Amino acid sequence: MARAVSETHDEILIAASRRFAVTGYKGTSLQDIARAVGCSKATVLYHFANKEALLGKLMAPAITVLEALDARLAGQTGAAAQQVATEGFVDLAVRFRREIALLRGEFPDLLQQPAFAHIQQISERLVDAFAGHSDRPVARIAALVVLAGIAETCAEFIDIPDDELRPALLAVVRRAVEPVS
Amino acid sequence: MARAVSETHDEILIAASRRFAVTGYKGTSLQDIARAVGCSKATVLYHFANKEALLGKLMAPAITVLEALDARLAGQTGAAAQQVATEGFVDLAVRFRREIALLRGEFPDLLQQPAFAHIQQISERLVDAFAGHSDRPVARIAALVVLAGIAETCAEFIDIPDDELRPALLAVVRRAVEPVS
DNA sequence: AACTCATCTGACCGATCGGTCAGCGTCTGA
DNA sequence: TCAGACGCTGACCGATCGGTCAGATGAGTT
């Protein structure tokens, strides 16, 4: 029955990604994942230390890209920051739609965990950039509407082609965001 | 120890609303609610048939208003529908911020339940109205960004005064939504 | 005093969760 | 040939979940 390492390992990652995206992280049990793969729950926990480690592996690429965007954002202000944030975040959201979907609604909980704590700071800096670093509530509210709206919309439109979703999102963001004074 | 009916009953509703808004529906146990009230879990289940019934009582006012908005929307098309949807939904979202917060991320699950099934149809009609009844993907994507963004933002800004949040949301919606052709 | 009835509770239930562990075959290199 | 590593599993664990139930309490009525 024993297969090569990478085989079952990767099958678990794929199945977990699919199940998480449909029923969420909390809503998916290790048993569910094992059933989808066709192995035992113990096998899942043989390949991954625990459920959180499995999520970590799935999220790693998205987080890397997010951190890179955050780094690019560091040197920018005003309209330039807005543009970098817009293009960078829309790109990221479209590309990692599945990862966003699996976090749906569990963001508040997950951000509490130390492993994801810095994500909160990054998203705050993103809101900041969308708002053109203005501290006026009107600008910050618009920024959050845009940020949250993109994330949710990407999670919803899983099957639409990338090059249809991306320009539509860019268009709505550019209209919605408050122009810098 | 026995108190008047309405007292404990209402205390449970208040405590449940608060706990749900912080830790979500699934993330809040009946034990949590009982502890917050200062009674036993069995008492919670004496006053409410089950956990779902408790949620139903909390959501009822918001759902009534949502249904009323849906009814008002029925006769409208194009730009008129956009305007009714915008003002109606922003108003609703601001007013029922707490109720939206407690549904955060559990919308997909809850909509499966027959008791909330019609909500899905209503929200689809809302997206339709925001899109000015256009079926162009660009318009529908913008509509969903706006709808989801408002909901999430309202849940986030729980403490800001209504008359600061409402005009800011109206402003961003009017910019973001695709103008009808 | 005896009875009724709403309120409330501790003890308990089956189900499910994430996670542990001893041990099962099988493959491989010395 | 054989020891050990590897992939995998069933049985089990403690915790927690939503929910049930018989019975205690106490106030009001007769």
Automatic annotation (TrEMBL), chains A, B:
<dbReference type="GO" id="GO:0000976">
    <property type="term" value="F:transcription cis-regulatory region binding"/>
</dbReference>
<keyword id="KW-0804">Transcription</keyword>
<dbReference type="GO" id="GO:0003700">
    <property type="term" value="F:DNA-binding transcription factor activity"/>
</dbReference>
<keyword id="KW-0805">Transcription regulation</keyword>
<dbReference type="InterPro" id="IPR001647">
    <property type="entry name" value="HTH_TetR"/>
</dbReference>
<protein>
    <submittedName>
        <fullName>Transcriptional regulator, TetR family</fullName>
    </submittedName>
</protein>
<dbReference type="InterPro" id="IPR050109">
    <property type="entry name" value="HTH-type_TetR-like_transc_reg"/>
</dbReference>
<feature type="domain" description="HTH tetR-type">
    <location>
        <begin position="6"/>
        <end position="66"/>
    </location>
</feature>
<dbReference type="InterPro" id="IPR009057">
    <property type="entry name" value="Homeodomain-like_sf"/>
</dbReference>
<keyword id="KW-0238">DNA-binding</keyword>
<dbReference type="Pfam" id="PF00440">
    <property type="entry name" value="TetR_N"/>
</dbReference>
<feature type="DNA-binding region" description="H-T-H motif">
    <location>
        <begin position="29"/>
        <end position="48"/>
    </location>
</feature>
